[in-house]
Amino acid sequence: MAKIQVKTPIVELDGDEMTRIIWAMIKEKLIRPFLDVNLKYYDLGVQKRDETDDRITTESARAIQHYGVGVKCATITPDAERVVEYKLKKTWPSPNGQIRSILDGTVFRKPILVKNVTPAVRSWKKPIIIGRHAYGDLYRGVELVVDKPGKVEIVYRPAGGPETRLLLHDFKGPGVVMGIHNLEKSIRSFARACITYALSEKLPLWFSAKDTISKTYHAYFKDIFAAEAAAQQAQLEQAGIQYRYMLIDDAAAQMMKQAGGILWALSNYDGDVFSDVVAAGFGSLGMMTSVLVSPDGQYEFEAAHGTVRRHYYEHLKGQPTSTNSVASIFAWTGGIKKRGELDGTPEVTRFGAQIEKAVIACIEAGIVTKDLVPLIEPRPAAHQTTEGFIDAVAARLRDMM
Ligand code: NAP
Ligand code: MG
User: Fold this and answer.
1) In the prediction, which pLDDT does 202 show?
2) Between 303 and which of 76, 190, 293, 327 could a Cys-Cys bridge form, CB atoms 3.0 to 4.6 Å apart?
3) How confident is the model at residue 262 (pLDDT cuts 50, 70, 90)?
4) What average pLDDT score do residues 316-321 get?
């Protein structure tokens, strides 16, 4: 069988630990045998980032800007413990955070639903998609430990003055402070990206923040969102889509009673937390996909979970693992489908969709990794190993081709 030709390269960002192992298996068993694709490879494994003083991360984001489509494996965001573990020069910043700030994108996270997994939240029938703002706040914060009494102020010194000073706190004893920021342009493109996504998928759009407490910072987000929704009121109405602003705690409670089929737009940190809640609620972290969409229409696809560290340590001890590769596979298929769409090559898009069908067919036939076993009805007698599952998908895919 001739391989399907992919016109334009796809940028491939490799990663760490268990997901790095899964990543290589997917490429070898599900992609390379079927697809003739030029992969622009960037190794974002933590050791390579350390070796290049993290230049590789910036270069990979630039490559996505250039080629338009990237697929990314999960990566370690090092903390002090990881610095020791991997003998790193320092606690390099989150590669995802950096790529997000370069692409200035919005992250949409969507659970993969299968017929035989009932969500933990009984009312959830359709995907809840999280639109996570991907710039600033905590992820671009500056922090300081205050170890002696003293005043901490925020000073704003605009070109041409006058200066504004705001007392953050008058410390009588030790404590800690943080400064965060965001940009009008970024919030606006976040709001627009969410509205565009809601329109294209015909989903009601919620945006939540805490403007009752954060009367300036969060209110700034709320106002921009409202203005952008108002600017597209006609299109939203025509599509029968309602835009709602809700307080974050209210929305979180309401979400538990909804059937799903909602795009929930959230600020950076809220989106981080709630996408994991939603992923767990729908079944497994291994079943949540994520796409970063830039305002200029560049796309980076990845799994929403991390490097599955605990499983990797088992793997290193020579123990068999049963790690769910579905979200990582869907990172590849998302990239392949988008590449086909942008290149105008429907056979490439079709192939991406075919891999997805093979994955769903396996799960619905009870061929699953360990994380899904307690969720599947009827409960499968056994589970697959990490590699066994990917092999089963490959076998189905070969039958379909
Ligand atoms: P994690 O990789 O998300 O895994 C946490 C736990 O969730 C796992 O131990 C496992 O539970 C379960 N899990 C997650 N993905 C799974 C899968 N595909 N199949 C089966 N079970 C899965 O988080 P972590 O282990 O705490 O973090 C490891 C590293 O990932 C950290 O260094 C962090 O910086 C990084 N991280 C990267 C990204 C990213 O690149 N997008 C995102 C988040 C975290 P059990 O142990 O109970 O089986
Ligand atoms: Mg998270």
Assistant:
1) 86
2) 327
3) very high
4) 97
Burial class (CB in 10 A: 0-12, 13-18, 19+), 172: exposed
- 276 CA to centre of ligand 2 in angstroms: 6
Which amino acid belongs to residue 106?
T
- 211 to each of 130, 207, 219, 221, 378, how far by Cα in Å? 20, 12, 5, 9, 45
Residue 10 burial (CB count, 10 A): 25
pLDDT, averaged across the chain: 95
CA of 304 to the centre of ligand 1 (A): 9
Quote the pLDDT of residue 29.
Answer: 98
Q: Is residue 339 in contact with ligand 1, taking CB distance under 6 Å?
A: no
Among the bound ligands, name the one nearest to the CA of residue 273: 2
Type of residue numbered 111: P
- Whether the per-residue pLDDT at 200 is higher than 80: the answer is no
108 close to 275: Cβ distance less than 8 angstroms: no
Q: Which atom of ligand 1 is nearest to the CA of 303?
A: 41
Altogether, the residues listed in the chain come to a count of 401
pLDDT at residue 308 greater than cutoff 80: yes
Distance between CA atoms of 350 and 354, rounded to whole angstroms? 6
Give yes or no for residue 77 CB within 6 A of ligand 1.
Answer: yes
Smallest CA-to-CA distance from 197 within 259, 265, 269 is with 265
Whether the predicted pLDDT of 105 surpasses 90: no
The response to whether residue 310 sits with its C-beta less than 6 Å from ligand 1 reads yes
308 lines ligand 1 (CB under 6 A): yes
